[in-house]
Amino acid sequence: MNELFVPSDFVNLILEILLALAPLFFIFIIFQIFVFKLSAKRFLGILSGFVMVFLGLILFLFGVKIGFVPVGNFIGETIGGSIHNWLLIPIGFALGFVVTFVEPAVRILCTEIEKYSNGFIKEKHILYTLSFGVAVAVALAMAKTIFAISLTYILIPGYLIAFILAFIAGPTFTSLAFDSGGVATGPMTVTFILSISLGAAIITEGADPVLHGFGLISIVALAPIIAVLIFGIIFKRKGGNIDG
Q1: Do the domain assignments include residue 75?
Q2: pLDDT of residue 119
Q3: Mind giving me the DSSP string for 130-179?
Q4: pTM for the structure as a whole
């Protein structure tokens, strides 16, 4: 892995993160001067938060470059190139579940859902629903890569099912479902799972890396939508109601 370390890449990464955070930082400073006027203690606390986010992004994104992506590609190429390449399907299911379960954005969403539903929808129920949905999606995406299945055959029926379920589940769960789809496609999923899919597509005979390696994220975004809508229908059938 040492050959992947290029000092100039590290410097460029730091500059990119600084440029990305700078607008948010300056907007906060302007609001602090003219609107917020927070106490020194709170102001310094928020500044320390900016510093921690900056350092965290450096560590995460550089770790992705030297760790997540190479390992994901290696797993995809090794298993995808073997006679037992079908193992990528159950492995994808397991990884999809675990990666979603530890995804910070998913945790935050689940906590907020329980909070604003006054505890009617439990955090752990949504967490397991999303994790299972993504697990199924990743397994399906691996099958798509191995067997060179067109993405059209997955997305069109999938979204038709999602829109039908949305009418049944009601407006509240429809809102939760479509937000869940975006949250589930977080950095853990994109960096690790996508690299496995690309690695498998590169080594699989008859598969185009661009055509069959990509598209995973669109499937991952769809599966939680369907999973949460089904959860909402079951929730309402059991007597729960948060639609007001």
Answers
A1: no
A2: 84
A3: HHHHHHHHHHHHHHHHHTT--THHHHHHHHHHHHHHHHHH-HHHHHHHHH
A4: 0.78
Instruction: Give the total number of structural domains in the chain.
Output: 2
Contact 196, 88 (CB under 8 A): yes
Q: Which residues, in sequence order, are CB contacts of 216 under 8 Å at separation 6+?
A: 138, 141, 144, 145, 193, 194, 197
Residue 26: give the domain boundaries: 1-67
CB atoms inside a 10 Å sphere around CB 66: 17
Residue 10 burial (10 A CB sphere; 0-12, 13-18, 19+):
middle
pLDDT band for position 2 (cuts 50, 70, 90)? very low
Q: Residue 186: what are its φ and ψ, rounded to 5°?
A: -85, -175
Query: Do 124 and 203 belong together in one domain?
Result: yes
Kindly report, residue by residue over 13-30, the tens digit of the pLDDT: 899 999 999 999 999 999
Q: 196 with 139, same domain?
A: yes
Q: Are 50 and 89 found together in one domain? A: no
- For residue 88, how many other CB atoms are within 10 A of its CB? 27
